[in-house]
């Protein structure tokens, strides 16, 4: 057994690391200032992604950036309310900063 409690042969760490390497990718997260969205943002930043937080609560965004320390620099915030008709077309500031959506959050527009 490895020190983390897993059997050493149960996975290939190099393959796993490569699979979750989002370096050079931008991920947009609707609701990124909420409990689930902020944890997704934290995980993606940890995997090297630039994370565009599309949300309503700028204060929660600022708290997340502070909590992430150096990785907080990988986050950007866009005031946004994810209604079905708006989704990404309702957030022109995102396109000015990041261009095309690389990995859109599929929760956009769901109520």
Overall mean pLDDT stands at: 77
Quickly give the structural class. Answer: alpha/beta
The CATH C-level class name: Alpha Beta
Give the domain tally.
Answer: 1
- What letter string, H or E per element, gives the SSE order? HEHEHEHE
Main sheet characteristics: 4 strands, parallel
Q: Give the number of DSSP strands.
A: 4
Helix coverage percent: 25-40%
Q: What is the third-level CATH name, the topology?
A: Rossmann fold
- Backbone CA Rg: 16 Å
Physical arrangement of strands within the biggest beta sheet = 3-2-1-4
Question: Given the C-alpha coordinates, what overall shape results?
Answer: globular
How does this structure look, described?
The chain has one domain: 3-Layer(aba) Sandwich (Rossmann fold). It is built from 4 helices and 4 strands, in the order H-E-H-E-H-E-H-E. The chain has helices at residues 13-19, 35-46, 58-68, 92-98, and strands at residues 26-30, 50-55, 75-79, 103-104. It has a 4-stranded parallel sheet, with helices on both faces. Strand 2 (50-55), helix 3 (58-68) and strand 3 (75-79) form a beta-alpha-beta unit. It is globular. The N and C termini lie far apart (45 Å).
């Amino acid at each position: 057994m490895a020190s983390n409690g897993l059997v050493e042969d149960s996975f290939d760490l190099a393959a796993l690391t490569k699979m979750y390497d989002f370096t050079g990718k931008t991920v947009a997260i609707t609701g990124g200032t909420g409990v689930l969205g902020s944890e997704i943002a934290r995980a993606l930043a940890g995997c090297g992604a630039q994370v565009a937080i599309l949300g309503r609560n700028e204060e929660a965004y600022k708290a997340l950036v502070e909590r992430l320390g150096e990785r907080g620099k990988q986050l950007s915030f866009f005031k946004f309310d994810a209604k079905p008709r708006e989704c990404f077309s309702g957030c022109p500031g995102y396109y000015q900063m990041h261009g095309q959506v690389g990995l859109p959050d599929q929760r956009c527009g769901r109520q």
